[in-house]
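Below is a filled-in request sheet from our internal design queue. Each sheet records the structural input a requester submitted and the sequence that came back. We keep these sheets so that new team members can see what a complete request looks like end to end.

REQUESTER: design group, bay 2
PRIORITY: normal
MODE: inverse folding
CHAIN LENGTH: 144
BACKBONE (tokenized):
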């Protein structure tokens, strides 16, 4: 049914991804799909970048890579079918780019409940749902 499932993970919000990774694991098991875990390290505006150490982004990216690898183990994802990717940029933009580059046919991502601010500002999940060429599953948290 699916060949390549992309799971974008916000490593700054631990726990949000739990349900998405569990659903991705089940879908991958049913269809033999591979899973790509993606973290995007937000790029800093040029003015802020001046004040950061030269290796700031490189360090953030390798930390994110390690977090994804740990999540893959913790979430019991099939080790031979999972890969991790880290990109630098705006999250929704890089999610869409990675979906194209990896020929993803499904994106599974956790999404917050919509709030007024979300309607006004937009959100990563909304951008991805609107612009992705492939199917997108946006998983809301369980009702409290
Ligand atoms: P937000 O407004 O915080 O983007 P959404 O509910 O629209 O909230 O989307 C949250 C989802 O967006 C996360 O579960 C994750 O899939 C994706 N996402 C957000 N930030 C990142 C990031 N830095 N790297 C990868 N994915 C991200």
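RETURNED SEQUENCE:
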């Amino acid at each position: 049914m699916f060949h390549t499932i992309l799971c974008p993970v916000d490593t700054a919000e631990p726990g949000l991804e739990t349900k998405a990774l569990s659903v991705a694991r089940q879908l991958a098991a049913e269809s033999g799909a591979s899973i790509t875990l993606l973290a995007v390290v937000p790029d800093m505006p040029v003015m802020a970048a001046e004040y950061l150490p030269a290796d700031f982004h490189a360090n953030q990216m390798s930390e994110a890579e390690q977090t994804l690898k740990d999540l893959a183990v913790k979430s019991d994802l099939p080790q031979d079918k999972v890969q991790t990717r880290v990109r630098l940029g705006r999250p929704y933009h890089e999610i869409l780019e990675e979906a194209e580059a990896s020929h993803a046919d499904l994106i599974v991502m956790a999404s917050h409940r919509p709030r007024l601010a979300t309607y006004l500002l937009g959100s990563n999940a909304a951008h991805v749902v609107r612009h992705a060429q492939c199917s997108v599953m946006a998983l809301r948290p369980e009702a409290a």
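SHEET NOTES:
- The mean pLDDT is 92.
- The helical segments are 18-31, 46-49, 56-74, 91-101, 116-121, 124-131.
FILED BY: M.R.
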